[in-house]
């Protein structure tokens, strides 16, 4: 059977990757730039996210309302997001409307004008977004965790930037940074759904071949983590905590064991932390582990929101479960269940055009090639209990970063947990 995933590289270096899914009627498309908050100098922190907002605020032939109205008129949706290492502009439509979607996304990506009046309005919107993040305790404590783990490294900053930075930006400086950062070598266009690869290249290629290469961006520098304690007092009903350690990068060959270890620790409802903290003791409504990966590093950690009187008990229980992972191999039943959970999620995601569009981009950016689901499934199945034990002993060693947000009476007493 013909490989449904195909790739074309334009003369300027932009890559176009498609995944043909003939059994569906929709198409998801994304224009990805391998640039994010970690690539910003400190004084420009927040600029990638601001650029992402401004791209939707008008081009030479469409104003902001027309962009929204045209997408609504074809029953589609378009949006964008900024991460630590990537920015993505994406949309989803019926296959018959793919030409309109490619026209809109290429127009906003290539021809945005960054009008000063729109810049001022959108800055006010992002300032409200920062306020909303600060008002959300679980969002705030995760940001504090990044600071506690990565320190002054860009990975420890907020994608949104600071209010002071936003107030110092100007519309023309954002447009200049867009032209400097959005290099062809860092742009990947992906699409998944009911489409033909050659037709899609014909729709997108002529417009994106206009992007001219420029000076290469500085190489990313890995963080030198010095985990610490961060405590912020707030009058809340709960104490929100995150405990974190350095993790694995996205291309580390041990990432499959890493993922399974995270699932067993706190990645689903049958996980050790969920059962021990919530089900057996009723200490938290929300408790889970997380394991994000970046190009050269990662983090593995635990979040919980608990009554202030249960803070020490919860931290001790978390450390107990971390110690169990280091002292004894996980059971065959636990490993089998985690594998089935991950494999099920992986295979079901193959039915989503959005997920397949995203997967195509991640594979191209991280590995430079298509990685079949069967390859990932084989590597997941091959993970052993011994590998998870070895990984736990490497990653879950103190010192660890700890962030605590809420009515903490004695912050100094928490130093023993880092």
Q: What are its keywords?
A:
11 strands; alpha+beta; 418 residues; 6-stranded mixed sheet; 5-stranded mixed sheet; 15 helices; 44% helix; Cytochrome Bc1 Complex, Chain A, domain 1; 2 domains
Topology of helices and strands:
Blueprint: E1 5-9, E2 15-20, E3 26-33, H1 47-54, H2 64-73, E4 77-82, E5 87-94, H3 98-111, H4 116-135, H5 137-150, H6 163-168, H7 171-181, E6 187-193, H8 197-208, E7 229-233, E8 239-247, H9 255-267, H10 272-279, E9 284-290, E10 298-306, H11 311-327, H12 332-349, H13 353-367, H14 373-381, H15 385-395, E11 401-406
Parallel strand pairs: 2-6, 7-11
Antiparallel strand pairs: 1-2, 3-5, 3-6, 4-5, 8-10, 8-11, 9-10
Structure description:
With 418 residues, the protein is α+β, with helices and mostly antiparallel strands. Helix content is 44%, strand content 18%. The protein folds into two domains: 5-209, Metalloenzyme, LuxS/M16 peptidase-like (Cytochrome Bc1 Complex, Chain A, domain 1, 2-Layer Sandwich); 229-414, Metalloenzyme, LuxS/M16 peptidase-like (Cytochrome Bc1 Complex, Chain A, domain 1), CATH 3.30.830. The strands form two sheets. A six-stranded mixed sheet has the order 1-2-6-3-5-4, with helices on both faces. Strand 9 (284-290) and strand 10 form a beta hairpin. The N and C termini lie far apart (54 Å).
**Strands, total number:** 11
Q: Describe the biggest sheet? A: 6 strands, mixed
Average pLDDT, to the nearest integer? 96
| Helicity range | 40-55%
* SSE string: EEEHHEEHHHHHEHEEHHEEHHHHHE
- CATH homologous superfamily identity of the largest domain: Metalloenzyme, LuxS/M16 peptidase-like
Tell me the CATH architecture of the largest domain: 2-Layer Sandwich
Tally of DSSP helical segments: 15
Domains, number:
2
Task: Report the CATH topology name of the largest domain.
Answer: Cytochrome Bc1 Complex, Chain A, domain 1
Report the C-alpha radius of gyration, rounded.
23 Å
């Amino acid at each position: 059977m013909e490989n449904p995933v195909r790739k074309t590289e334009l003369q300027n270096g932009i890559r176009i990757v498609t995944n043909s899914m003939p059994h569906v009627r929709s198409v998801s498309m994304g224009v990805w730039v391998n640039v994010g908050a970690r690539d910003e100098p400190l004084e420009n922190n927040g600029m990638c996210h601001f650029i992402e907002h401004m791209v939707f605020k008008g081009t030479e032939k469409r104003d902001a309302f027309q962009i929204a109205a045209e997408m609504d008129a074809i029953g589609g949706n378009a949006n964008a997001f900024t991460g630590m290492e990537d920015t993505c502009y994406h949309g989803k439509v019926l296959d018959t409307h793919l030409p309109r979607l490619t026209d809109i996304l290429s127009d906003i990506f290539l021809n945005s004008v960054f009008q000063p009046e729109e810049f001022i309005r959108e800055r006010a919107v992002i300032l409200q977004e920062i306020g909303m993040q600060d008002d959300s305790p679980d969002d705030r404590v995760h940001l504090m965790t990044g600071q506690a783990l990565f320190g002054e490294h860009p990975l420890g900053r907020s994608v949104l930037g600071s209010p002071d930075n936003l107030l110092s930006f100007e519309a023309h400086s954002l447009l200049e940074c867009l032209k400097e950062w959005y290099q062809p070598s860092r742009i990947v266009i992906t699409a998944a759904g009911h489409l033909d690869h050659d037709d899609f290249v014909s729709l997108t290629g002529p417009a994106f071949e206009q992007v001219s290469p420029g000076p290469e961006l500085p190489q990313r520098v890995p963080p030198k983590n010095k985990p610490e304690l961060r405590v912020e007092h707030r009058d809340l009903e709960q104490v929100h905590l995150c405990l974190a350690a350095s993790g694995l990068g996205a291309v580390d060959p041990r990432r499959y064991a890493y993922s399974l270890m995270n699932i067993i620790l706190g990645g689903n409802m049958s996980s050790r932390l969920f059962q021990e903290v919530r089900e057996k003791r009723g200490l938290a409504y929300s408790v889970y582990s997380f394991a994000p990966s970046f190009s050269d590093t990662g983090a593995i950690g635990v979040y919980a929101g608990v009554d202030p009187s249960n803070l020490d008990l919860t931290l001790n229980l978390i450390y107990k479960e971390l110690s169990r992972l280091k002292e004894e191999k996980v059971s065959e039943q636990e490993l089998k269940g985690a594998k089935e959970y991950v494999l099920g999620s992986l295979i079901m995601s193959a039915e989503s055009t959005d997920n397949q569009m995203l997967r195509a981009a991640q594979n191209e950016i991280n590995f430079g090639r298509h990685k079949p689901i069967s390859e990932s499934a084989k590597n997941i199945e091959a993970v052993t209990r011994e590998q998870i034990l070895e990984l736990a002993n490497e990653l879950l060693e103190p010192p660890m970063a700890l962030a605590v947000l809420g009515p903490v009476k004695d912050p100094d007493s928490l130093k023993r947990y880092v």
